[in-house]
Write a structure and sequence with these properties.
By secondary structure, the chain is of the alpha+beta class. The chain is 40% helix and 35% strand. It contains 3 helices and 9 strands; from the N terminus they run αββββββααβββ. The strands form 2 sheets. It has a 7-stranded mixed sheet. Strands 8-9 form a two-stranded antiparallel sheet. The two termini are 37 Å apart.
Length: 182
Amino acid sequence: MRLIVLGLILLLASPVVSQERVLEVGDRVRVKMENLDETLFGEYEGVEDRYLLVRQDGEPTATRLPSWAVEDVKVQTGTKSNTVRGAVIGGVALGLGMGIYGALLGRGVSSFSAEVSEDEGTVVGTAMGALVGGLAGAGVGALIGSAIRSDVWEPVELPAKPLVAVLHTGRFSFGVSIPVER
């Protein structure tokens, strides 16, 4: 019976595997505080009492941020290029512009030619302008977007100080460590 109770206690006290990244000293963090419009950026330096220590960019010492007022903490995991975003923006912008230009040009061509109706000239001009402009714009946008890098941020949990309880019996000692929320 004691073995079953001990097994249940160990099973319930086992740590749950978290999906979020663990915050480590030296990580670059982005901290959003309650009732503060700006976001703080800096290097994580640890937890002291119930305060988060972050050395903000350009500051020589760490700032103590009250952990109960921290709304959101994210850690930088790398950077990414904006190639696809640039291609989409460039393709749409230049495709629309060249489509309108093609429609006007097609309408003008149809007024000089008896073989092409005004509607045909407008449709063909719009389609050709949008296609050529869209492809060219996507190419230029992809090149520009690949040169622009953005930070990648991942949410993290603040490290919690554990609550430790130890049970001493005549022959055995049993201890449990329970993380306490901020």
